[in-house]
Every structure is written in structure tokens, then in C-alpha cells.
Amino acid sequence: MIGERKANTNDILVDVRHLKMHFPITSGIMIQRQIGAVKAVDDVSFFIRKGETLGLVGESGCGKTTVGRTMLQLYKATAGEVFFEGVDLCKTKGETLRAMRRRMQMIFQDPYASLNPRMTVGDIIGEPLIIHKLKRGREVTQRVAELLATVGLNPYFANRYPHEFSGGQRQRIGIARALAVEPAFIICDEPISALDVSIRAQVMNLLEELQGQYDLTYLFIAHDLSVVRHMSDRVAVMYVGKIMELATRKDLYEDPLHPYTQALLSAVSIPDPIVEAKRQRIILAGDVPSPVNPPSGCRFHTRCWKAIDICSQQEPEWRELKPDHWVSCHRA
To answer: How many Å from the N-terminal Cα to the C-terminal Cα in the chain?
Structure first.
């Protein structure tokens, strides 16, 4: 698999191997028994090099956010391995895991729900500094002021509460909180999807500036393919708990190999009316399958216009068809 093949190179920061996250479905009131499982993430493998941004795209409910949360051990993985700086996080517990969390942070999707309304901005950003014993006393106040300035906010805002800020400002506070412990790796979970269009470019530019300034590595989760194209070095396309295709940004957008990727890209608007008029849209039939009872064989075969008999019978092999261009499709 892709993670196994590349894991021995020195530039790999995060290496995910055969990751699974199944949420149990239970029945009964007094005595509960499991009657099924939601296969939110089902055998996912990829790696992220130091200093790069890996984009993770797909339809809502395909498991993108679950991948990110399971990597950080916010969910305990059903199976698989997540290596960060050579250490398997799935086997790490207690104080060891807590110490490693300094190096990994997350920017959450909803800037309204991810900030505690009862805490001031200074307390929100300063809390990780105190928990990890990095600063104390006046040092915390000084560091909070520095972080607010870094993300483009007035340091005097430290005494205000989250409800006094706009969505874009709240997301900047969330970014400052993530930066507080000087991480090496940040998972950006759709950080601009809840923001106004006019604010999105500002937050995207801020994330790029911070990456260059602090040598950060990103997993950038989104469903907007134009945003991912701007932000990412490589892109992974996910569908019903599995990765369908993974390639460099240039290869994926210019020569997509998987039918699902081709369908997604056909829906992206092109700011050229002549090219847009000549382009053929791919309209997918049917609905996205349930992760509770996913289709046999290839997950996408129920909606794929290229499907043949083997697609419903046998799961396609994860293959490297071109250098650093992987795909899971019998017809690719």
C-alpha cells in the first residue's frame, strides 16, 4: 500500500496505514447489543511529507472529518496505524500521547461551536500554553498578544468573548489557538466552509503565510475543489469511507483517472465562458450509498457509467499507474 511503500523515506511526517473507524449501531434499552456498524472510514492509507499540504476532498458524509479526528486520536481507531514522526499514535496512551499532541493540532470547521462562549479570547488561546506548561503568568498574556497579532487581530481583543466577533475573526482565533503550542502538523477541517465568500480568501492566504513562516504541514479537508486546488500540493479523493484516487495537484486536475474524480471535476466552474460552454458535465445517477451497508466490490459501481461485472464483484486494487498517482479502479 502507499503508506507502506514510502514509510522508510526521511521526509514523511505522517503515515496512515489501513485506517478503519467503524461506529457501532446498537439496539435495546437495558441490554444493548450491536446490530451493525457505520463504516465511516474503511481501510484508508496515505502519507504526508514534511512541509506539504495534502488536500482531502469528497462529498459530505464520505468520512473526511472522521479521518482527521481519528488521526489525532479524538476517535479511537477500529483498526490500522497512524505513524507521526515514526510513533504509532494508535498504540500510544496517557502522558506520552498528551505530550505528542503538542505537535499536532486541529482547526475546526465551525468557528461558532469550536470556541467556548464562557471563556475570553485570551483564556481560549492561553489554555493550551498552561496545559502543556509552556508559559505561565505574564508570559501567557504576552504570548497570547503575539499570537493575536500573528493572525491579524488586535492584541487588545484578548479580554473579549467569542460572541463579540464575526465568523472570520472567530476562525482566526481558532487558528491562533492551534498555533499556540508550536505544532508541526495541523489538520484544517473545512476551515473556510462556514465563512462568507469575501472572508475565505483572507483565511486561505493567512494559512499559506503561516505555513511558510512556521514550516507547517497541513491536511486540508474540504469539499470545494477549487479551494483545494489553490491550497494543496497533492490531493486525495474520498468516497464512502475509501480513497478513490491520490495524485499531485497538477496530475489530478489535468488527467483524472477515476470516474468519480472526473465527475467531481466536471462540476467545477471554469471562469472562461467559451471553455465552459464546450465542456460536458457528468451527472451521476442515484444517491450516495449508506456507509452502514456499502456496495460490494467498488464502492462507486452503483453510480458509475463505466462499471462492468467485475466492479460489483471484486474490490479494485490500489495501484500506482503513474509516478505518485494512485487509483482504485478496475477501468483506470
So the answer is: 17
How many domains in the chain?
A: 1
Q: Report which secondary-structure segment, H or E, holds 190.
A: none
CATH number at residue 101: 3.40.50.300
Residue 146 lies in a domain: no
- pLDDT for the residue numbered 1: 45
Cell of 86: 515514526
Q: Is 322 within a domain? A: yes
For 255-264, write each residue's pLDDT tens digit.
Answer: 999 999 999 9
Q: Are 166 and 142 in contact, with CB atoms under 8 Å apart? A: no
Q: Identify whether 139 is part of a domain.
A: no
Cα distance between residue 195 and residue 207, in whole Å: 15
* CA–CA distance, 236 with 43 (Å, rounded to integer): 14
Per-residue cell: 321: 499507474
Q: 138 in a domain, yes or no?
A: no
Segment (H or E) for 260: helix 259-266
Beta strand 53-57 with 217-221 is parallel
Closest CA to 205 of 217, 194, 219, 191: 191
Bridge partners, residue 53, by sequence: 218
CA atoms within 13 A on the CB side of 251: 19
State which amino acid sits at residue 190. E
Please tell me the pTM assigned to this model.
Answer: 0.89
**Domain range spanning residue 266?**
2-27+34-119+167-328
Task: Identify the H or E element spanning 34.
Answer: strand 33-49
d(CA 233, CA 193): 20
Average pLDDT, the chain: 89
What is the grid cell recorded at 231? 491550497
